[in-house]
């Protein structure tokens, strides 16, 4: 082990979710349908916002980018999971595992910042409506988008720079269907308590901190709406409830993964499925079913396609 700075292990083997053929078939159908629906639902939002001039506003620009991030996020783990369900040997190369972790943390970190930007957008729209177009200018929207990707990529690199040189010389079995940083650290041949603490601080506290910040901001916005006349409050509350629902669905599993002392066998894996497949699908459903402008834009687009 002296002087070892590279992994002896060339690949990792996923243990998957179950060995039952019936459950595997159910998971395959469930995963394929949800992945397809997630991709199509988010793609519809991107196309609708791009083509409909009525939706060329900061709120829908951020929403379209959230849909792009959701498509990327569910494509990181879902396709391989679907392909591996019926395989006996569910393997991924060492660098394939590192790349999967990198993109999952980069895209996840980007989505955290984007959700904060969307909360700020709603704050300006509801609390400072007369200055909305001035504050949420195209330059500000571009700043939010670029900043979210810079923070997401930096967050991912900071964690992985300490992981790529770890020695892996023992077991190569990951009790999951995707590469997860806490599980990967437990396979290293050296003591990784300090690295695990760093991951908890970097991912766990950032997730919890962002969630608390978003909850406080939405409470403040709701209090502001409550203080004003009830005439325009119903639309504002409807929009905010959509945002709050998305925030809870996104941050709930993440806070469990990275703040719980040690992930348990089955619960965290099924929460990972929820985070990878169901949440990206629920986002377009929530934003379209609870948003009149989006529904009208989709009707206009469908009528144009029909005619």
Strand order of the largest sheet: 2-1-3
Count the E strands: 3
Spatial shape: globular
- The percentage of residues in β strands lies in under 5%
User: What is the rounded distance between the termini?
Assistant: 70 Å
Radius of gyration: 21 Å
- Given as residue ranges, the uncertain stretches (5+ residues, pLDDT < 50) are 1-6
Quickly give the structural class. Answer: mainly alpha
Chain-averaged pLDDT: 82
Element order, helices and strands?
EHHEHHHEHHHHH
Largest sheet: 3 strands, mixed
Percentage of residues in helical conformation: over 70%
Helix segment tally: 10
Give the structure's gist in a few sentences.
The chain is mainly alpha-helical. It is 73% helix and 3% strand. It contains ten helices and three strands, in the order βααβαααβααααα.
Please characterize this protein's 3D structure:
The protein is mainly alpha-helical. The chain has ten helices and three strands. The chain has a three-stranded mixed sheet with strand order 2-1-3. The longest helix is centred in the last third of the chain and has 35 residues, at 193-227.
């Amino acid at each position: 082990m002296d002087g070892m700075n590279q992994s002896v292990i060339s690949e990792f083997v996923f243990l998957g979710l179950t060995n039952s053929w019936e459950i595997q078939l159910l998971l395959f159908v469930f995963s394929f349908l949800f992945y397809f629906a997630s991709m199509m639902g988010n793609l519809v939002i991107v196309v609708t916002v791009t083509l409909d001039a009525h939706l060329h506003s900061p709120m829908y620009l951020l929403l379209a980018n959230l849909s792009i991030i959701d498509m990327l996020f569910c494509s990181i783990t879902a396709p391989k999971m679907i392909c591996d369900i019926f395989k006996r040997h569910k393997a991924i190369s060492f660098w394939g595992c590192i790349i999967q972790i990198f993109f999952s943390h980069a895209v996840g970190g980007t989505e955290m910042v984007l959700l904060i930007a969307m909360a700020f957008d709603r704050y300006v729209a509801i609390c400072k409506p007369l200055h909305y177009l001035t504050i949420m200018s195209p330059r500000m929207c571009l700043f939010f988008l670029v900043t979210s990707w810079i923070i997401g990529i930096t967050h991912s690199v900071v964690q992985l720079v300490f992981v790529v040189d770890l020695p892996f010389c023992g077991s190569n079995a990951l009790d999951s269907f995707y590469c997860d940083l806490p599980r990967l650290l437990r396979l290293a041949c050296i003591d990784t308590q300090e690295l695990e603490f760093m991951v908890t601080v970097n991912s766990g506290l950032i997730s919890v901190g962002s969630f608390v910040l978003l909850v406080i901001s939405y409470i403040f916005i709701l209090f502001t709406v409550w203080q004003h006349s009830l005439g325009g409050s119903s639309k504002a509350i409807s929009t905010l409830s959509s945002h709050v629902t998305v925030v809870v669905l996104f941050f709930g599993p993440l806070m469990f993964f990275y703040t719980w002392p040690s992930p348990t066998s089955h619960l965290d894996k099924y929460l990972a499925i929820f985070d990878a497949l169901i949440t990206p699908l629920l986002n377009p459903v929530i934003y379209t079913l609870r948003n009149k402008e989006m529904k009208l834009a989709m009707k206009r687009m469908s009528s144009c396609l029909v005619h």
